[in-house]
Amino acid sequence: MRPLLASLTLLVILGGPSWAQVEPPSRFTLTWENDAFARTDRHYTNGLSLALAGRLDPWVLPAWLRGEQAEWGLEVGQRIYTPERLEATDVVVDDRPYAGWSYLGLSVTRRASSLGWEDTIELRLGVIGPSSGAQEVQELAHSFNASQLPRGWRHQLRDEPGIVLSYRAGVRALRGEAAGLSFDVTPRFGISVGNVATFASVGVSLRCGLGVPDELSDTARVQPIRLYVTASAEVRFVGYDLFLDGGLFRRGSHRVEKEPLVADASLGLILAVHDRLSVSYTHTIRTPEFVGQSGADQFGSFSVTFSW
Q1: d(CA 109, CA 119)
Q2: Which residues lie closer than 8 Å to 176 by C-beta, 6 or more apart?
């Protein structure tokens, strides 16, 4: 654990050893997730993140973390959760509690072209509760679009620190071309541990279209246009979810009984121009996360990436 934390701390100061080892940012991504894309306003209702990434000399990492290629990542974000009945002023006992989480994420991504392997180790640190600013953000957004103001934020989960350490990996099982289109198939798995969430996941992703990028190659050509679809499925085995189970450090808050198995199915479209500007939209359907939930949830994710 100490080598990992030391490496992530290094990323914060960007260039502790030298700029030759930790390069300046070369990519910026803005991501907005909201259930308004599915015309609902409940549960995971909004997410916003800003992320920077850049190349990292693999030799700056501990031996057990090195790969053929490496990249650092820095992210700031916020997530907002609410029950379905926003007009209720009392606790909605059969629905999830109001909650917000604002966080800072630090990550290391490694790639090994010889193995078709890519993985990411990420540490997220932040705050859950009123100090996250989630109430103010949602009320401001609802006042702008003249929609129903949420009236139950005084029952939100109370302040406590949030930490989660996660590991995600994918092994490319297939890549090829057919009828002028490229495609790849990548099984994935992951694990997260922390007081925010503890779970294990397995899934698979498919990409198909014009100019599907090969992130594992250093010799890939820049293409004027890339246009391709993505499809993925994932199942999570949930051990703990603070936003359903209530606070770990501050007991007594409203909670609901979580579902131990949760599945996501996603379909997306990505357009990239000269590998400098990328725009994507992904729509996700999520099975019920707690006992008694009225049907599956849906939300959309809109992302813009600038590379230089």
Answers
A1: 6
A2: 182, 183, 184
User: Per the structure block, which two tokens stand in for 41?
Assistant: 């306003």
Residue appearing with tokens 């006042």: 143
CA distance 249 to 247: 6
User: pTM score, two decimals?
Assistant: 0.90
Ordered DSSP codes for 230-286: EEEEEEEEEEEEHHHH--SSS--S----B-SEEEEEEEEEEEEETTTEEEEEEEEEE
Q: What is the pLDDT along the chain (308 residues), one digit of tens a residue?
A: 444 444 444 444 333 444 446 789 999 999 999 999 999 999 999 999 999 999 988 877 777 777 788 999 999 999 999 999 999 999 999 999 999 999 999 999 999 888 899 999 999 999 999 999 999 999 999 998 878 889 999 999 999 999 999 999 999 999 999 999 999 999 999 999 999 999 999 999 999 999 999 998 877 788 999 999 999 999 999 999 999 999 887 777 899 999 999 999 999 999 999 999 999 999 999 999 999 999 999 999 999 999 99
Tokens found for residue 210:
């014009």
Tell me the one-letter amino acid at 241.
D
What amino acid occupies position 190? G
The parent domain of residue 55 ranges over 2-307
What is the Cα–Cα distance from 37 to 47, expressed in whole angstroms? 12
**Bridge partners, residue 97, by sequence:** none
**Total domain count for the chain?**
1
Under DSSP, the state recorded for 79 is E
Residue 56: CATH number of its domain: 2.40.128.140
HSE value, Cβ hemisphere, 13 Å, CA-based, for 21: 14
CB atoms within 10 A of CB 168: 18
